[in-house]
Amino acid sequence: MLIRTVFLSLLVFLPLTSVALDVKQSRDGFSLEEDRDYASKAHYWGLLGGGEVTSWWSQNISRVMRTAVIPNRLPANTFERNESDWAKRLAEVTADTHLGTMTLAEAISDPRSAAKAMIVIHEGKVVFETYPGLRPADSHFWASVAKPTAALLIEQLIDEGKLSDSDKVEKYLPDFAGTALGDTKIVELMNMVPGTDTHDSAKTRQDPDSVATRYYLAEFDEAYKNGEVETVRDILRGAARTGPAGEVFEYSSGITQMLVFIAEAVTGRAWADAFDDRVWSHVRAEGALQMHLAPDGMAMAHGVVSSRLRDLARYGLLYTPYWSLVADRQIVSDAAMARIATPEYGQDVFMKGDGKRFSSYLGEIPVGNSRQWDAVYADGGMFKGGLFGQGLYVSPEKGIVIAYFSTVASSPLARFLRPLAKELSR
Fold first, then answer.
1. Quick check: 126 and 81 in contact, CB under 8 A?
2. In terms of pTM, does the model score above 0.90?
3. Quick one: CA torsion of 94, 89, 419, 80, rounded to 10 degrees?
4. Which residues form the Beta-lactamase-related domain (predicted)?
């Protein structure tokens, strides 16, 4: 336990900004010896700090974790391309990053960015695409960019009248009756304001006894203490109340998993099957969506999800008026989009908690977070990021989707999202 505490303490101060990775290696492939070595080190403690093990794991999760494969059931759409007018112009967009002021092209080529792939779509057309550390057909880790997938099934069930934002969790999950989370409303889960000790932060990740550390250990089938392996559901049932719900935005993967449990209870389907029926089977994707599973079969929709980068971009397009280019029906309703566009808890609640961190990360203060999206702007822009520098930005009105994949927590690419969107909106 002491070793783990010291290790996690070091992670808080780990100079991730100086990490440099040869991303070409992950594009060109690994040797047999490297595959075996990295696989043996792909445990929770070994992945938190980023680096070569994380870089390998983020493209090979199905080799070391249970995985539900959600197939692409429709012929893939073919994107029109308009790179001749835009690619050079976007490459020259500048942003102030922790690595200094640089152009997008410089940020992507800087090894400290560990930038593996990026795509920009404007009005349904590809205007920029690059794969310095990934082959286009390779699948990669979404990280927390996946969190809106859990929210999307809840949005659909709200649209269908099968549940309500104001309902308490215990209405659908009887085993949570009498617990802090059982007494929490669905809208409070959607917006990560539960007022419970489920917060996922640098501080909680350095505490081996925190709820956050325990539910991550459970997902990796690693013992919490005394050789016992818990389940995420059991851990969340034991979460305690820290204050009134609705007052502070506190980021939490465990809270996202509560949405998974609710969706399964209401649909009567395993989460991967429900997402297949309701979403992925209607997407004109190039490849399968890999939904990685905890040892007990729980779908880790909070982030342990993989797909091709273009398919992540297709998912982003579902939130725009250009959805018909990539799907055979509207999957994200106008009503759901209206709910996302207007944060229920506003900027004050956002900035009391993790909003400060996200605003610094993005370089611009949003209106707030909303329904599993990290940031929503007054002009409609929506952002969702991931732990190791993954990101998805959507500007619905302009039909802009930006998706990128890297493997360092301090990736500078997030600082380019708003400048790129503004350049495309001129």
1. yes
2. yes
3. -140
4. 117-418
